[in-house]
Design a protein that fits this description.
Largest sheet: 3 strands, parallel
Order of helices and strands: HEHEEEHE
Radius of gyration: 30 Å
Distance between the termini: 35 Å
Strand content: 15-25%
Structural class: alpha/beta
Number of strands: 5
Strand order of the largest sheet: 2-1-5
Helix content: 40-55%
């Protein structure tokens, strides 16, 4: 089925090119000049991208505090709780703290306090950003 559709599309493309070629050739033979138009792109030019280096990574998470943040997407709390449980089971020397940030793009009223807490206490953060 796909092979027939591909062959049909190729034939249609060739027919279109042939027809446009003969129409242009006929117009040029009769001395008719074709009007040229200028087309501008509506995309513009994007601003230059400033690269930033990645944050320095600790050599080890041993004895460190890692915050596990859930942004409130449906069922993402289950995943982030599993990540917290993984840290507790596989890296018991690392303190994993689970926190809810809010719902999607709308932070909860306590989010600024949470960010202050993270700045003061966290050595690392894992954020569940949803889809």
């Amino acid at each position: 089925m796909k092979r027939h559709m591909s062959a049909g599309l190729i034939a249609l493309l060739c027919l279109g090119l042939f027809c446009s070629y003969t129409a242009n050739h006929r117009a040029q033979a009769q001395g008719v000049s074709q009007e040229k138009i200028t087309v501008l792109t509506p995309l513009g030019t994007p601003p230059p991208i400033t690269l930033r280096p990645m944050a320095p990574r600790p050599a080890s998470l041993e004895g460190k505090t890692v915050y596990i943040l859930d942004q409130g997407y449906p069922n993402s709390d289950k995943l982030m709780l599993e990540v917290t449980a993984w840290f507790e089971k596989n890296m018991p020397e690392t303190k994993a703290i689970f926190r809810r940030m809010g719902r999607g793009s709308r932070p909860s009223p306590g989010t600024p306090d949470l960010f202050t807490e993270i700045k003061e206490n966290a050595d690392g953060v894992v954020i569940g950003t949803g889809h």
